[in-house]
Amino acid sequence: MAGKAYLGIDAGTSVVKAAIFDENGDALAVQGRSIPLMHERAGVRGAVEQDFEVILATLSAVVSDAIREAGQTPESVALTGQGDGCWITDEKFHPVRPAMSWLDGRAGSLVDEWAKSGVLQEVYGISGGSMFPGAPAACLKWLDLNEPETLDRAATAGYCKDAIFGRLTGVRATDPSDASMPFGDGTGMGYSDRVLELTGLTDRRSLLAPIVAPVPVADLHAEGAALLGLPVGTPVSSGPFDFPACGFGSGIGFPGTEGDALLIVGTTLGCLVHRDELVNTGDAAGFSVSTGKSGQWLRAMPAMVGTASLDWVLRILGIEVSAVEGLLGTSPPGANGLNVLPYLATSGERAPFVDPLAAGSISGMRLTTNRDDIVRAVCEGLAYTARHCFESAGQSGRIVVTGGGSKSSNWMQVFADVLETPLVLARTPEVGARGAVLAGAEARGEELDVEQWTSPEGVVEPNDANRALYDAGFAHQMELLEAARPLWHTRAALATQGDKK
After folding, report:
1. How far is CA 177 from the centre of its chain?
2. Could you tell me if residue 353 is inside a domain?
3. Residue 21 included in any domain
4. Is 300 a domain residue?
């Protein structure tokens, strides 16, 4: 007889995935389908939105595909998904408007005003979290100023996974991971009246869903059962969101892992460290994500752009992704003097610093520079960014790595060399869905063997021969960053003058 099966669903930014695991954490099935982003709909500059109904339809299809592949009906459902943004729904969890993605840049000027007035620093001192244009508070305030009638019709301004959870179960709730940023009160379990006051959102407090720790759990209702093709009453859990879910799925965030870190080489470059204290001093950058356990935090530094920077370069140069491994082998460490600042997101950067005007650049180019050097310089630039993030987040233990970029052995060698520490390869597939299943099982009181579920698949050792080169390279990268920062604002001022003309 087949043992128990567990369904994990990850509603990401560009792909919705469903994975079914057995009791040992082995994948019985994995299915995924892409979902679209709507850029500058109706000509609104900086707008990046998503259609919630399209996500639900895609979710239904991938779950059906996964159940068919596994040949087994799962006994529980665990949800995770993209964080941040703003998902506006009515009392029955139907969208009131398209969701504002975390990539949305419309609130850039608002965040800039908050930075200049000291709001960002004070919020950071309360919650340990910074804000950027796609953060929930910024998106919600933008709507409050520009579409107040939309919020008047809404019941909840929440997060992707929670909107799905509501649609599947009829229960309005969020988990501590999403709730702790940016409205958190520093306990990991509540909202801050002062943060709502600082952001001018006190009158919109009713739109924030109740917080349930460690994660919300409810039964699948009739509509949800029809959507997923599962029996009514199947338990469903919601959370944590994808970043901390990947932490749990790789073995980070559990007792005894303080100081350990996770590196996600995905669309974004995610750097996360398990801390036993709230970090809310110093520069207002990064996020302190509650684990749902008292005094336990995940210090997150999610840089806006990861593999998306590499994808951009490959598209510009007309190179296939499959060629990257070889190109990294032909250009030497240091990329023949080429350096790349990989801040290419339209909404700027959020970690390890916050600047809505941050932009990428390439320096050190000569007539002898070739495409191999450019590709390697982008990969090294992202590795330098990871080092910057981990130094800011207080990493002191092992680093586990996952994400699409982790499939490139040569790129993982670059990361190991720049970070100067062994990289532990997380158990695959679907680390985020795996973490959501573990969190859901714990919330239901079901014991799964965490060590077995998160056993690593290998280790990439750093090459000590490259240590001096990459130490100097990182120092130079930081010099380039400091030199570029004032220029971003000069460029923005010139662009504004051009618009006026």
Report:
1. 12
2. yes
3. no
4. yes
Task: In whole angstroms, give the CA distance from residue 423 to residue 425.
Answer: 6
The alpha-helical segments, DSSP class H, found in 331-466 are 371-393, 409-419, 431-444, 450-453
Residue 279 lies in a domain: yes
pLDDT at 85 over 80: yes
How distant, in Å, are the alpha carbons of 258, 262, 271, 349, 401 from that of 265? 21, 10, 9, 16, 7
The pLDDT tens digits of the residues spanning 242-289 come to: 999 999 999 999 988 999 999 999 888 999 999 999 999 988 888 999
CB-based contact 432:80 (threshold 8 Å): yes
Say which CATH number the domain at 346 has.
3.30.420.40
Cut 0.85: pTM above it: yes
Owning domain of residue 304: 254-500
Query: How far is residue 375's CA from residue 355's CA, in Å, rounded to a whole number?
Result: 25
The residue type at 486: P
Using CA atoms, how far apart are residues 128 and 285, in angstroms rounded to an integer? Answer: 8
State the total domains in the chain: 1
Q: Could you count the other beta carbons within 10 Å of the beta carbon of residue 237?
A: 29
The closest of 169, 429, 15 to 437, measured between CA atoms, is 429
